[in-house]
Write a structure and sequence with these properties.
This protein is of the alpha/beta class. The chain is built from eleven helices and 13 strands. It is globular and about 55 Å long. Bound molecules: acetyl coenzyme *A. The site of acetyl coenzyme *A has 22 residues, from helix 2, helix 6 and helix 8.
Length: 329
């Protein structure tokens, strides 16, 4: 349906209360606050309790977003959860969240697009709403990454944290809403960030446990190179599709929070002032699908994003996958 604009009716987020600081990590692996801060920008991250699953984090964020949209769970017609740490392989975490919030009328599914998952989910929800199939959609990026973190591997354990961000999407009036969506992938690089075991390739066994293959494995410096190039290109493509005359028209960049150095390099290449980037990496680390979702909700709640602002969501992750979305708030 041409002419239908889809936008954000409400946003919300939730992070677990327990903080793990760089000083705490110094006691666990051979690292230092100085190394983590200068190489990544991270000072602390949130850790969900043992009895808390991804759906529990998603539930809190979802209820906050539904309230912000002035709706009730029974009004929700579609739930999409973006996550690489589902409660279990199946059923989908979306079905578990549906049950937890009582959104009985919603269709439910998960998507797996790592750190770009929230953007992929927004893009899917936009199409369902534009096509007139659903009036609204609850989109949640939620992760308990600490469940797949190897606490003996200093290359990865300092980077990740837990959290969830949610948005209720629906039709909007006037010139606001999503102006452009650009998604992409490069499967030739599927090996550089992965969870090797537990799927059909390497089912769980004593051997996979002994070899620590149920933890995330990452080739950090490889990813770094791809991230800067891809996030720059994606941001520029989305700005072009949206018809912006120049990147200076962007008021706020809400990026995936993988590394402060990546984000500063991307801003410089696109030609956007660093002050326009919204950062929360220092408080939360990398929360994969949840990073951009939490950052958007925080920026809106803190009034860093205001009515009429042009914002760029820009994310990149394991797959490789990427996405950029321009929104008029
Ligand atoms: N503390 C101290 N030293 C460390 C630590 C640590 N926590 N981790 C690594 N080092 C050491 C390494 O062992 C290496 O030592 P060596 O030279 O003696 O071998 C040295 O620091 C440099 O390692 P590099 O990997 O070259 O460090 P780099 O500057 O690349 O920073 C980092 C590493 C932070 C991981 C960076 O590469 C990065 O941010 N990569 C991108 C990650 C990313 O984008 N992920 C996105 C997707 S996430 C998702 O989809 C879930």
């Amino acid at each position: 349906m041409e002419g239908v604009r889809v936008g954000f009716l409400g946003v919300g987020y939730f992070v677990p209360p327990k903080i793990l600081s760089n000083a705490d990590l110094e006691k666990m692996v051979d690292t230092s606050d100085a190394w983590i801060t200068t190489r990544t920008g991270i000072k602390e991250r949130r850790i969900a309790a043992d009895n808390v699953a991804t759906s529990d984090l998603a539930k809190e964020a979802a209820l906050a977003a539904i309230k912000d949209a002035d709706l009730t769970p029974l009004d929700i017609e579609l739930i999409i959860i973006a996550t690489i740490t589902p409660d279990m392989q199946f059923p989908s975490t979306a079905c578990i969240v549906q049950d937890k919030i009582g959104a009985k009328k919603a269709a439910c599914f998960d998507i797996s697009a790592a750190c770009a998952g929230y953007l992929y989910a927004i893009a899917i929800a936009e199409q369902f709403i534009k096509a007139g199939i659903y009036k609204n959609a609850l989109v949640v990026g939620a992760e308990k990454l600490t469940a797949i973190t190897d606490w003996s591997d200093r290359n990865t354990c300092v980077l990740f944290g837990d959290g969830a961000g949610a948005s209720v999407m629906g039709k909007v009036e006037g010139d606001k809403g999503i102006l452009s969506v650009y998604l992409g992938a490069d499967g030739t690089q599927h090996d550089i960030l992965k969870l090797p075991a537990g799927g059909s390739r390497l089912p769980a066994s004593h051997k996979t446990v002994d070899e620590r293959l149920h933890y995330l494995k990452m080739s950090g410096s490889e990813l770094f190179k791809h991230a800067v190039k891809i996030m720059t290109e994606a941001g520029e493509r989305a700005a072009k599709i949206a018809g912006l005359n120049s990147p200076q028209e962007i008021d706020c960049v809400i990026p995936h929070q993988a590394n402060v150095r990546i984000l500063n390099a991307v801003a410089k290449k696109i030609g956007i002032a660093e002050e326009k980037i919204y950062f929360n990496i220092e408080r939360y680390g990398n929360m994969s699908s949840a990073s951009t979702a939490v950052a958007l909700a925080e920026a809106v709640i803190a009034k860093r994003v205001k009515k009429g602002d042009i914002i760029l969501l820009d994310a990149f992750g394991s797959g490789l996958v990427w996405g950029a979305i321009i929104i008029k708030w």
